[in-house]
């Protein structure tokens, strides 16, 4: 049960409205998470700016795979439904790749290294070892890419934490619990 109500269109603060309207237009509907997050124009607009900037980082398959891995570690069921949906429909990842990403891997070696590194970052709170950094670099990621991976982990964690705290009603197809995949 949601711990904060998703705002109705007439309740959205004026400073959140342009950002929420942009997402609604691009997605085709207003996700409950965003309609809830919009209650704080400061937090919502800061998150949206980060999301839009990071949408240029890496490639969509890697970004969605990182989102799946981080959301799995953080136990965010709302984000797992969103990232599973976008991974399938936008990134065109097959079901077995979505499951692999949730487990912290990818079938492509470069993506696999990025997802493993992202999972290590979230599990260790950033206290990765030299070998972890070497592995992601050896797979072909530049230091700029590594910084983008860290930023993606932070951004996905923000939405994970938000959704775990406020538990918005899910509006994307349900996913199988990780223990069953």
Automatic annotation (TrEMBL):
Gene3D superfamilies from the UniProt entry: AhpD-like
InterPro entries: AhpD-like, AhpD_core, CMD-like
Positions of transmembrane segments: none
A single GO molecular function term of this UniProt record: peroxidase activity
UniProt xrefs under SUPFAM superfamilies: AhpD-like (SSF69118)
Cited NCBIfam families: ahpD_dom
Protein name per its UniProtKB record: Peroxidase-related enzyme
């Amino acid at each position: 049960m949601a711990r904060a109500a998703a705002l109705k269109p007439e309740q959205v603060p004026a400073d959140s409205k342009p950002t929420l309207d942009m997402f609604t237009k691009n997605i085709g509907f207003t996700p409950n998470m965003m309609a809830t997050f919009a209650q704080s124009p400061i937090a919502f607009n800061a998150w949206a700016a980060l999301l839009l900037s990071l949408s240029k980082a890496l490639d969509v398959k890697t970004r969605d795979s990182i989102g799946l891995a981080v959301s799995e570690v953080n136990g965010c069921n709302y984000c797992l439904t969103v990232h599973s949906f976008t991974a399938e429909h936008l990134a065109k990842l097959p079901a077995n790749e979505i499951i692999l990403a949730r487990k912290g891997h990818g079938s492509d070696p470069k993506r696999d290294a990025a997802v493993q590194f992202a999972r290590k970052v979230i599990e260790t709170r950033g206290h990765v070892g030299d070998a972890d950094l070497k592995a992601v670099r050896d797979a072909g990621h530049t230091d700029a890419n590594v910084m983008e991976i860290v930023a993606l982990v932070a951004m996905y964690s923000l939405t994970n934490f938000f959704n775990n705290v406020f538990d918005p009603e899910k509006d994307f197809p349900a996913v199988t619990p990780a223990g069953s995949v």
